Every structure is written in C-alpha cells, then in structure tokens.
Amino acid sequence: MEELTILRTFAAVTTVVAAALVAANWNARITVAGFVIFIVASIAWMADGWLENKPSLIIQNVILLLINVLGVWRWFPKAEKEIKS
C-alpha cells in the first residue's frame, strides 16, 4: 500500500473514532481522549496537505487543531474530577 494512502486512511479512521468519542459524551475522560485523537488526526491531515501541496487542507486543520486543544483544555479539569471521585 502506498504511504500516502496509509496516511490518509489513518487520518480518516482517527477522525471518525474521535468524532464518535466526543459525540458519545459518555464521560469527561472519554471526551478528552476524543479531543486528543482529533489532535492526532489534524496533524495527519496537515501532513497530507503538506505532501500534496494543499494549503487549504493545512489551514483547515491548523484551525481544527486549535479548536481541539481548546476542547482538551475545557474538558480536562472535568476528567480530573472524575478520576479523583
């Protein structure tokens, strides 16, 4: 399998898994895990954009990366409380 195909498959699968975890909203720890996986997916999509010279894909995923960092920042304190209780 071609390396770019592997990268795109990884990016797509991690995006879907992250979306499912965040949407499920089972608890804060799982939601944080979803946002972290979204961060990994954004990095993979940015790599694809870089390799394929697609600036719009890079810009989109830089913005999504920042949004997902905000999601981790917002949900992490709730996850810590869940762990302590």
| Spatial gap, N to C terminus | 46 Å
Largest sheet: none
User: What is the helix tally?
Assistant: 3
What is the ordering of alpha helices and beta strands? HHH
The amount of beta strand, in percent, is under 5%
Key descriptive features of the protein:
mainly alpha; 85 residues
Give a structural overview.
The protein has 85 residues and is mainly α. Helix content is 89%, strand content 0%. It is built from three helices and no strands. It has helices spanning 3-24, 28-51, 55-84. Helix 1 (3-24) runs antiparallel to helix 2. The chain starts with a helix and ends with a helix.
Layout of helices and strands, plus pairs?
Elements lengths: L2 H22 L3 H24 L3 H30 L1
Give a short synopsis of this structure.
The chain is mainly α.
